[in-house]
Specification:
- This protein has 5 helices and 2 strands.
- By secondary structure, it is mostly helical.
- Helix 1 packs across helix 4 and helix 2 packs across helix 3.
């Protein structure tokens, strides 16, 4: 079983959706530094995606410094806190951009968007 979930949506490449879910799990702390990261085989089987797609996700996470290969252990979440901090900001930027675009398409005012965010913030607190 994977330590994170992916909710696939149409219109976005599978690779991007899996990569985003994995990054989010790492920066949220669902996957902590030193935790094992799923193998390519496990990713492809559990998510029912092409093994090449799973390999591409793992390679990208290694390139970005979020996971590393440990001999005898496989891939693990990196101990590099600076990499994690920069990824938090990157993930937030992507989500904010999607949110603002959606709000503008719905013709919400900036105040209405602020109110909606505040309401959700309070519900989660």
């Amino acid at each position: 079983m994977l330590p994170f979930k992916v909710q696939f949506t149409q219109g976005r490449p599978v690779y991007e959706q899996v990569l985003f879910a994995a990054k989010k799990a790492i920066v949220r702390g669902q996957l902590k530094p030193g935790d094992a990261f799923p193998s390519v085989r496990m990713l492809s089987q559990e998510l029912r995606i092409n093994p090449n797609t799973a390999q591409k996700v793992s390679a990208r996470l290694r390139e970005e410094g979020l996971i590393e290969v440990k001999p005898g252990r496989g891939s693990v979440v990196t101990e590099n806190a600076r990499a994690l901090k920069s990824r938090k900001n990157e993930l937030l930027e992507q989500e904010l951009e999607r949110l603002v675009v959606e709000a503008k398409q719905l013709k919400l005012s900036e105040q209405e968007l602020h109110d909606a965010i505040r309401c959700h913030w309070e519900n989660l607190s």
